[in-house]
Amino acid sequence: MATLAQLENQIQKLQRRADALRERKSVEVIAKIRVLMDEYGLTPADLAEAGSSPAKKRGRPAGSRQSSGTKKGANKSKLPPKYRDPESGATWSGHARPPAWIKDAADRTVYLIAGAGRKNGAAKKGAKRSGRTAAKKTARKSA
């Protein structure tokens, strides 16, 4: 088995060989670069100028509308609940994935909240209109 000193000597020899190989390769690479620079008429100043420009960053620019980590549509108003679980009191708007308490229900109308079953709140709008017209009629009669 090799001793620590022997292993360190091997490491030093390998490091010297790697440095020599790197030196030889770098001489070749520099020669290739000079040939290409002469071919394209480039100067060291051209290389410095090209290297100083920052690479284009990817993604949304800082300070843009949703770069603060907010989810898309987070500023929209929350939909009103349409279904309620009578046991827990949990509600669901009827959009997105259904919760576990209503997921397997054969008839979801059992869980409907009163007045929430109509599309676009038509029952509420109609009630307001009829209330206003009734108030106007009573005001006309009394006048």
Automatic annotation (TrEMBL):
<dbReference type="GO" id="GO:0009295">
    <property type="term" value="C:nucleoid"/>
</dbReference>
<comment type="similarity">
    <text>Belongs to the histone-like protein H-NS family.</text>
</comment>
<keyword id="KW-0963">Cytoplasm</keyword>
<dbReference type="Pfam" id="PF00816">
    <property type="entry name" value="Histone_HNS"/>
</dbReference>
<dbReference type="GO" id="GO:0003677">
    <property type="term" value="F:DNA binding"/>
</dbReference>
<dbReference type="InterPro" id="IPR027444">
    <property type="entry name" value="H-NS_C_dom"/>
</dbReference>
<keyword id="KW-0238">DNA-binding</keyword>
<feature type="domain" description="DNA-binding protein H-NS-like C-terminal">
    <location>
        <begin position="73"/>
        <end position="113"/>
    </location>
</feature>
<feature type="region of interest" description="Disordered">
    <location>
        <begin position="44"/>
        <end position="100"/>
    </location>
</feature>
<feature type="region of interest" description="Disordered">
    <location>
        <begin position="115"/>
        <end position="143"/>
    </location>
</feature>
<protein>
    <submittedName>
        <fullName>Histone family protein nucleoid-structuring protein H-NS</fullName>
    </submittedName>
</protein>
<feature type="compositionally biased region" description="Basic residues">
    <location>
        <begin position="121"/>
        <end position="143"/>
    </location>
</feature>
